[in-house]
Design brief:
two-stranded antiparallel ribbon
């Protein structure tokens, strides 16, 4: 598969990102892949990491990686993440778990845009993290 033409930027006049994301991603791609929000269920439908935001985050990214691979893509094809966390206290454990994953996936620091929202709850009480993504195929 050809390399995705993706440019990320943080325009002047806008506050620098406060984490591993960019304000803008610009892509030239003929096909987009929209990935539904993923939660910390393994392939057998079992919850991974009950009560553990870090473990759930790791499982969610694993699920996203499997889905991306199924369409011939990797995290390098992701052009946007939307993250939903239950409780503000989940932010730091989430950041701790996803940092290594994103740094490995984007070694040049050209992270895709990401929105993080703290919500009152997700589909079931046990889910602490949900992430949806959009990827572009070259």
């Amino acid at each position: 598969m050809p390399e995705l033409q993706r440019t990320t930027m943080n325009p002047p006049g806008v506050s620098p990102p406060q984490g591993l994301y960019s304000h803008v991603a610009r892509v030239k791609a003929p096909e987009l892949v929209f990935i539904a929000g993923q939660v910390a269920l393994d392939a057998g439908g079992n919850l991974v990491g009950p009560g553990d935001v870090g473990a759930q985050t790791t499982q969610v990214f694993s699920n996203l990686g499997q889905i991306l691979a199924s369409v011939g893509a990797t995290f390098r094809n992701v052009v946007e993440f939307n993250v939903y966390l239950v409780a503000r206290s989940s932010i730091q454990p989430y950041i701790g778990a996803r940092t290594e994953i994103l740094r490995d996936a984007f070694p040049e620091g050209d992270y895709p845009p990401s929105t993080l929202v703290v919500v009152d709850g997700l589909a079931t009480e046990e889910y602490l993290v949900e992430i949806k993504a959009v990827a572009a195929l070259a």
